Amino acid sequence: MIEFKNVSKVYPNGTKGLKNVNLKINKGDFVVIVGLSGAGKSTLLRSINRLHEITEGEIIIDGKSITAAKGKSLRHIRRDIGMIFQNFNLVKRSSVIRNVLSGRVAYHSTIRTLLGLFPKQDVELALNALGRVNIQEKAYSRADELSGGQQQRVSIARALAQEAKIILADEPVASLDPFTTRQVMDDLKRINQELGITTIVNLHFVDLARQYATRIIGIRAGEIVYDGPVEEATDDVFSQIYGREIKSDELLGETE
Ligand SMILES: Nc1ncnc2c1ncn2[C@@H]1O[C@H](COP(=O)(O)OP(=O)(O)OP(=O)(O)O)[C@@H](O)[C@H]1O
Ligand SMILES: [Mg+2]
């Protein structure tokens, strides 16, 4: 479980990224965070693994405060959290399997991983992870030879190889076309259901949020303005989150 207790974030220039956020996310949830550009979606998501430091409050992950954690205990909490980015964050010139194996780095000594010496079990784990997202045959291709959707699947496989219990995805489909978008979202959803990995996704498209989320969190100017099951997130709710009607470019369209 992830718990936010009175969390605020003020950026050094005075911008308030988060304002007194209180939140509990349960194991196995598939949460989609929505809100206007600049609302604080990335700040919220990146606070969870301390990619952004919060300035007030506390974040608890599976009973441990990541806010207070240091050194080894921080590394151990972070090891359980996989991160997926809009731009995939792969080492482009490396092979797919090397990229996936980088998910294992936190389990081994630096020297060992610098030399690329991963145990055989890790290689198996990495190949299995690629199998789960249906690109095992690409294992020995160079990452930059893959399509955008395939590269995003590699980054999902990296989180799986990491044996993450939580996946944070910040606009994972923003660089993809509508068809590939659905494939990547389907992968995330399937993994969430099959492995029970808690998944939190920032999404720009309202219809995608509705289609994939079990729970929607709406954020506006750093404040949570909606938090509830997807069934109750009506058009009115979305208009309140956005502070206006939903525009057509906020819909991916061509549903089903
Ligand atoms: N490094 C930073 N320094 C100062 N202000 C920042 C920084 N990063 C974000 N902000 C500000 O914090 C607020 C929240 O930003 P955030 O990136 O979380 O929004 P977002 O909802 O993810 O937006 P988008 O949909 O455009 O990605 C915005 O007002 C933004 O300008
Ligand atoms: Mg963002």
UniProtKB/TrEMBL annotation:
Extent of the signal sequence: none
InterPro entries, per database record: AAA+_ATPase (IPR003593), ABC_transporter-like_ATP-bd (IPR003439), ABC_transporter-like_CS (IPR017871), ABC_transpr_PhnC (IPR012693), MetN_ABC_transporter-like (IPR050086), P-loop_NTPase (IPR027417)
Keyword Cell membrane: yes
Pfam families from the UniProt entry: ABC_tran
Superkingdom per UniProt: Bacteria
Keywords for the protein's UniProt record, in alphabetical order: ATP-binding, Cell membrane, Membrane, Nucleotide-binding, Phosphonate transport, Translocase, Transport
GO molecular function: ABC-type phosphonate transporter activity; ATP binding; ATP hydrolysis activity
Gene3D superfamilies the record matches: P-loop containing nucleotide triphosphate hydrolases
Assigned GO CC terms: membrane
PROSITE patterns for the chain: ABC_TRANSPORTER_1 (PS00211), ABC_TRANSPORTER_2 (PS50893)
Domain spans labelled ABC transporter: 2-246
PANTHER family: AMINO ACID IMPORT ATP-BINDING PROTEIN, PHOSPHONATES IMPORT ATP-BINDING PROTEIN PHNC
Name assigned to this protein: Phosphonate ABC transporter ATP-binding protein
Originating species: Heyndrickxia camelliae
Lineage start: Bacteria, Bacillati, Bacillota, Bacilli, Bacillales
